Amino acid sequence: MRLKYEDLDQSARYALMSQTVVPRPIAWIVTEDNGVINLAPFSYFTPLSSNPPVFMVSIGHKRNGHPKDTLANIRKNKVCTICMVKYDHMSKMHFTSKMLDHSVSESKVFNIPTERVLDAFPPMVEGTPSAFFCTLYQEIELLGSKTVPLIVKVESQYLDEECIKDPENFTLKCDLLASTGKKYARIGIDMEPPSIP
Description:
Strand content: 35-45%
Radius of gyration: 17 Å
CATH topology: Pnp Oxidase, Chain A
Number of strands: 14
Distance between the termini: 35 Å
Number of helices: 4
Shape: globular
CATH class: Mainly Beta
Protein backbone atom coordinates (compact mmCIF):
# COMPACT_ATOMS: atom_id res chain seq x y z
CA MET A 1 0.00 0.00 0.00
CA ARG A 2 1.27 3.46 -0.88
CA LEU A 3 -0.38 6.46 0.71
CA LYS A 4 -0.28 9.87 -0.92
CA TYR A 5 -0.24 12.42 1.91
CA GLU A 6 -1.86 15.15 -0.17
CA ASP A 7 -4.96 12.92 -0.40
CA LEU A 8 -5.18 12.40 3.39
CA ASP A 9 -6.74 14.74 5.94
CA GLN A 10 -4.81 16.00 8.97
CA SER A 11 -6.19 13.38 11.38
CA ALA A 12 -5.20 10.51 9.07
CA ARG A 13 -1.69 11.92 8.65
CA TYR A 14 -1.34 12.29 12.41
CA ALA A 15 -2.54 8.73 13.02
CA LEU A 16 -0.04 7.33 10.53
CA MET A 17 2.95 9.40 11.61
CA SER A 18 2.36 9.05 15.36
CA GLN A 19 2.03 5.25 15.16
CA THR A 20 4.96 4.73 12.78
CA VAL A 21 7.68 6.95 14.25
CA VAL A 22 7.79 5.11 17.58
CA PRO A 23 8.59 5.01 20.37
CA ARG A 24 8.76 8.74 21.02
CA PRO A 25 9.74 9.90 24.51
CA ILE A 26 7.07 11.82 26.37
CA ALA A 27 8.00 15.06 28.06
CA TRP A 28 6.06 17.17 30.50
CA ILE A 29 6.62 20.77 29.49
CA VAL A 30 6.26 23.02 32.51
CA THR A 31 5.44 26.68 32.01
CA GLU A 32 4.21 29.36 34.35
CA ASP A 33 2.11 32.50 34.07
CA ASN A 34 1.11 34.79 36.95
CA GLY A 35 1.92 32.07 39.45
CA VAL A 36 -0.13 29.38 37.69
CA ILE A 37 1.97 26.30 36.87
CA ASN A 38 1.00 24.55 33.65
CA LEU A 39 1.98 20.91 33.02
CA ALA A 40 1.37 19.50 29.57
CA PRO A 41 2.59 16.22 28.02
CA PHE A 42 4.14 16.20 24.54
CA SER A 43 5.41 13.37 22.37
CA TYR A 44 5.94 15.52 19.26
CA PHE A 45 9.22 16.54 20.82
CA THR A 46 12.79 15.73 19.85
CA PRO A 47 16.41 16.94 20.11
CA LEU A 48 17.59 18.78 17.00
CA SER A 49 21.20 19.63 17.75
CA SER A 50 23.82 19.54 20.48
CA ASN A 51 25.55 22.66 19.16
CA PRO A 52 23.57 24.72 19.86
CA PRO A 53 21.83 22.37 22.32
CA VAL A 54 18.23 22.64 21.16
CA PHE A 55 14.95 20.72 21.17
CA MET A 56 11.95 21.07 18.89
CA VAL A 57 8.41 20.74 20.20
CA SER A 58 5.26 21.05 18.13
CA ILE A 59 2.39 22.76 19.97
CA GLY A 60 -1.20 23.06 18.81
CA HIS A 61 -4.17 25.26 19.57
CA LYS A 62 -7.26 24.86 21.72
CA ARG A 63 -10.61 23.98 20.15
CA ASN A 64 -11.54 27.67 20.23
CA GLY A 65 -8.49 28.51 18.11
CA HIS A 66 -6.50 30.16 20.90
CA PRO A 67 -2.91 28.98 21.52
CA LYS A 68 -2.56 26.19 24.08
CA ASP A 69 -1.32 27.42 27.45
CA THR A 70 2.18 25.99 26.85
CA LEU A 71 2.55 27.96 23.63
CA ALA A 72 1.10 31.16 25.10
CA ASN A 73 3.30 30.96 28.20
CA ILE A 74 6.52 30.29 26.27
CA ARG A 75 5.79 33.12 23.88
CA LYS A 76 5.17 35.47 26.80
CA ASN A 77 7.90 34.43 29.24
CA LYS A 78 10.49 32.89 26.85
CA VAL A 79 11.27 29.96 29.20
CA CYS A 80 10.11 26.42 29.94
CA THR A 81 11.22 23.35 31.85
CA ILE A 82 11.11 20.05 29.99
CA CYS A 83 10.70 17.07 32.34
CA MET A 84 11.12 13.53 31.10
CA VAL A 85 8.28 11.27 32.26
CA LYS A 86 9.05 8.03 34.05
CA TYR A 87 6.88 4.90 34.11
CA ASP A 88 5.55 5.62 37.61
CA HIS A 89 4.15 8.95 36.38
CA MET A 90 2.11 7.41 33.54
CA SER A 91 -1.38 7.90 35.03
CA LYS A 92 -0.81 11.46 36.18
CA MET A 93 0.88 12.36 32.90
CA HIS A 94 -2.15 11.02 31.02
CA PHE A 95 -4.50 13.09 33.20
CA THR A 96 -2.60 16.29 32.39
CA SER A 97 -3.56 15.99 28.73
CA LYS A 98 -7.04 17.15 29.81
CA MET A 99 -7.77 20.71 28.70
CA LEU A 100 -8.07 23.03 31.72
CA ASP A 101 -8.66 26.76 31.94
CA HIS A 102 -5.55 28.94 31.74
CA SER A 103 -6.05 30.00 35.37
CA VAL A 104 -6.06 26.40 36.65
CA SER A 105 -2.87 24.46 37.44
CA GLU A 106 -2.61 20.79 36.50
CA SER A 107 -0.12 20.46 39.32
CA LYS A 108 -2.83 21.31 41.86
CA VAL A 109 -5.77 19.56 40.19
CA PHE A 110 -3.93 16.25 39.74
CA ASN A 111 -1.72 16.52 42.85
CA ILE A 112 1.61 16.52 41.01
CA PRO A 113 4.32 18.03 43.25
CA THR A 114 6.88 20.32 41.68
CA GLU A 115 10.09 21.83 42.98
CA ARG A 116 11.86 25.00 41.91
CA VAL A 117 15.50 24.36 41.09
CA LEU A 118 16.40 27.54 39.20
CA ASP A 119 14.71 30.85 39.97
CA ALA A 120 14.61 32.01 36.34
CA PHE A 121 12.73 28.92 35.13
CA PRO A 122 9.45 27.15 35.89
CA PRO A 123 9.70 24.36 38.49
CA MET A 124 10.33 20.75 37.56
CA VAL A 125 8.13 17.78 38.41
CA GLU A 126 9.33 16.02 41.56
CA GLY A 127 10.81 12.63 40.79
CA THR A 128 11.53 13.31 37.13
CA PRO A 129 14.56 11.36 35.85
CA SER A 130 15.78 14.45 34.00
CA ALA A 131 14.74 18.05 33.45
CA PHE A 132 15.98 20.56 30.88
CA PHE A 133 15.75 24.27 31.67
CA CYS A 134 15.22 26.00 28.36
CA THR A 135 14.85 29.40 26.74
CA LEU A 136 12.92 30.14 23.57
CA TYR A 137 15.36 30.06 20.65
CA GLN A 138 13.12 30.31 17.59
CA GLU A 139 9.51 29.98 16.50
CA ILE A 140 8.91 28.40 13.11
CA GLU A 141 6.00 29.30 10.86
CA LEU A 142 4.54 26.32 9.02
CA LEU A 143 2.15 27.67 6.41
CA GLY A 144 -1.23 25.97 6.64
CA SER A 145 -0.35 24.10 9.84
CA LYS A 146 -2.48 24.00 12.98
CA THR A 147 0.62 23.45 15.09
CA VAL A 148 3.51 25.75 15.88
CA PRO A 149 7.02 24.27 16.10
CA LEU A 150 9.17 25.94 18.74
CA ILE A 151 12.91 25.48 19.08
CA VAL A 152 14.06 25.84 22.67
CA LYS A 153 17.67 26.03 23.84
CA VAL A 154 18.91 24.00 26.80
CA GLU A 155 20.58 26.24 29.36
CA SER A 156 20.90 23.70 32.18
CA GLN A 157 19.97 20.09 32.95
CA TYR A 158 18.98 18.20 36.08
CA LEU A 159 19.70 14.46 36.33
CA ASP A 160 18.47 12.06 39.01
CA GLU A 161 21.50 10.33 40.54
CA GLU A 162 19.89 6.94 39.79
CA CYS A 163 20.13 7.68 36.05
CA ILE A 164 23.89 8.12 36.11
CA LYS A 165 25.82 4.91 35.44
CA ASP A 166 29.20 6.49 34.69
CA PRO A 167 29.53 10.21 35.53
CA GLU A 168 32.95 10.62 33.88
CA ASN A 169 31.67 9.48 30.48
CA PHE A 170 28.09 10.75 30.88
CA THR A 171 26.70 7.25 30.52
CA LEU A 172 23.06 7.25 31.58
CA LYS A 173 20.22 4.80 32.04
CA CYS A 174 16.83 6.35 32.75
CA ASP A 175 13.44 4.71 33.23
CA LEU A 176 11.39 6.67 30.69
CA LEU A 177 7.90 6.57 29.22
CA ALA A 178 7.29 6.78 25.48
CA SER A 179 4.34 7.00 23.14
CA THR A 180 3.65 4.39 20.48
CA GLY A 181 0.73 6.31 19.04
CA LYS A 182 -2.21 4.69 20.80
CA LYS A 183 -0.38 3.16 23.76
CA TYR A 184 2.61 3.76 25.99
CA ALA A 185 5.94 1.96 26.14
CA ARG A 186 8.57 1.76 28.85
CA ILE A 187 12.10 2.61 27.74
CA GLY A 188 15.12 1.45 29.68
CA ILE A 189 16.09 -2.01 28.46
CA ASP A 190 19.78 -2.25 27.59
CA MET A 191 20.63 -3.70 24.19
CA GLU A 192 24.25 -3.85 23.15
CA PRO A 193 24.91 -2.73 19.56
CA PRO A 194 26.38 -5.38 17.27
CA SER A 195 30.09 -5.11 16.53
CA ILE A 196 30.98 -3.68 13.14
CA PRO A 197 33.02 -6.14 11.03
